[in-house]
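Notebook B, p. 112. Complex prediction, attempt 2.
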Amino acid sequence: MRVGLFVPCYIDQLYPTVGRASLELLQKSGCEVIFLEDILCCGQPMANSGYEHYTTNKNYASPFLEALPNVDYVVAPSASCIYHLTHHLLKEELEQDKLQKFKEITEFLHDVKTNFVVQSYFPHRVALHKSCHGLRGLQLAKASELGGTAFSKIENLLNKVEGLHLVIPAQSDECCGFGGSFSVFENAVSVRMGEDKLKNVLHEKVEYLTATDMSCFMHLEGVFKENESVVKIVHITEILNSSL
Amino acid sequence: MKTLHANLSKEFLSHRKDADWHNDTLWFLRKKRDYAKDQLREWEQLRQAASEIKRHTLSRLPHYLEKFEQQASQNGMKVKWAWDGQEVNVLVTKILRENNVTSVVKSKSMLTEECGLNHHLEKQGFEVVDTDLGERIVQLRQEQPSHIVVPAVHLRKEEVGKTFHQFLNTEVGNSDPSYLAEEARNSLRRDFIKAEAAVTGVNFGIATNGSVVVCTNEGNADLGVHSKKVIIHCMGIEKILPGLKELSVFTRLLARSAVGQPITIYTSHYKNPRQYTKEYIIIVNNLRTEIYKDEGFREALKCIRCGACMNTCPVYRRSGGHSYHHTVPGPIGSVLAPFYNKEKNKDLPFASTLCGSCNHVCPVKIDLAGLLYKWRQKLTKETSQAVEKTLGFKASTELLKNKTVYKMAGKCARLKISSFVLKSSYNPWNKGRKFTDLPKETFREWYKRSNHEE
């Protein structure tokens, strides 16, 4: 299976280890991975701020459209980018079956690579933050406000990690307060949301906090640092890719 | 570039204890709602049914409104139509004058709040008393409700104690909730006896039998309607439902979504006037046809005003209802507000992280986050924007689509001097957060290097 790896702008620039863990994980799952070097960004930062009309031009959509025929799937370690691609940028460009080819990485490992055995060792107490776009946008798990049977692709994968003690803090599926430019223009509310998140995580006495989206962590890491918290931040791919 | 909402939120949050209390109280309601929802296995089917009923009704709105008018008139109700808020106010004034009424008891109606009815009537010399306890508290303080279901949720009991002492002559410093409620009840009883007319809002209008349905937990609407000879129900055009069968879906959803109760305590159907009473229904448009005409936003008219989107919204809970500077706050309010004033309310669709929780709690499944996203695109084009904002996003657009510029910018950011600037207090990001340490190389650089070495 040929998979195109899309490493979003902010992960490329700020969290290269997440890109690396994603690449290695996909290889471990038996995929031929092609790094989609020409794709920089999905356009979400501008679009969510009201400037979608700057990004719908060929410069944003076309690299994805060009990459698609050469691979079976386009995978990214960022639910919010995949959500933006499939619900906004490419929604009018592609049929539903083609849009299905864009997958967030845990969704891909869980739903497509069903035979993939997680062989990972991470002997730590880890809290989970359920990032909104993965949770509500891509239904990686059932959000607490919805009715119906509970499920969680994220927890299914994490529960297979040896040594890992998973903790679900209070309000774990409440937004962290990032929200793109919201975090700058609405600084006070954003920071308070991050502080409340920290309070609930600290209550669980964990060593790490994990999530499917580094965008939440861009903001949370800053809030944690400001509050001199000892809780470390780790992306889910880094846990799934860690070994003895 | 701080918006009005951002400034008001900051002010609200600066009273930390009160803000935490506000957040916790509304989260408590959200949890009660979750519990109530879990008691019904068919919860998601109910939401789906409600959403489809509303969609159907909206698709034939003129038909159902005409049917409703005809039925209600046949029942002896006097049906009037009002194009906007001003017309509502004039109509109510006229009715009161015709019937020689000088004092009115009102039971909670966000619609009359939207029209500024209290203010108008008071200016015309009428005495108006809001009879919902929360509404009464904010009315005494000359404030607007900060929430559509719990209008005084922004106030702690101590503040209510002070307000009651000032206006109702209660004991100084006594803020015991039972005592305050008892005193409010005594005072309201006198108001109920004194008033000559009752004004109510309407939760649902039933097309097949022409009745209006009013849901309250305190029974205050009933006290007014049952004891007065002049009764006025103000109903937004979107409140219409085809029949009683459809209503049954909504009575199961409304209170559960709002506060986690199985049903509202009083769900009253008013169909016929009694002998010697005059009962009016004013059907109000007030810009609803503008929303109706805009197919992209029409579904906002499905809203049944349960407030669930406010209780779940992490931004609303932390910033308080008044930060939205519009009658209806929170996610649904931010969708409606720009219809009333694009320029003044252009900040509200941005007062959200688009987390989508509001979509999931909405009993009629309005795509609130989607509509906020849609507004952002429209408002950016149709209202004035700060030049630096537009330029900033224009630059980001160029930066993130051009590989050479992108790589260069990344390299520049990694320079010592840039890192100093990024971490300085000049960077707005660093208010309440610390900028992350930039890695030595990007993923691209690592990929190139490691593959090259191989």
